[in-house]
Write a structure and sequence with these properties.
single chain; 108 residues; 2 domains
Amino acid sequence: MAPKAWSDKRERQYEHVKESVLQRGEDKDTAEEIAARTVNKERAQHGEAREASAQTLSDTPAPVRGGQRSHSGAGGRTRDQLYEEAKEKGIRGRSSMRKDELQKAVGR
């Protein structure tokens, strides 16, 4: 559940992000966690939070970034994420595969 310290704008943002994540097929708990983290990071970047990490303050805000980091490049999916996708697809031999092999196997 969204913390009560958020403004109405942040509450709306939380609900919007949560609905978007749910539409992608994630479960409710994951959607709530992603939405809360997104809103808290936005609050920190806009000076609305009491504390913020240096990394958060120097990072490009998500609306400006526009999905540039969405599962691609060095910040892409982890080996564990790829393994779970391979498991869902029933790919044999996945437990002994390296990250690059899993990427090829799941078609990423």
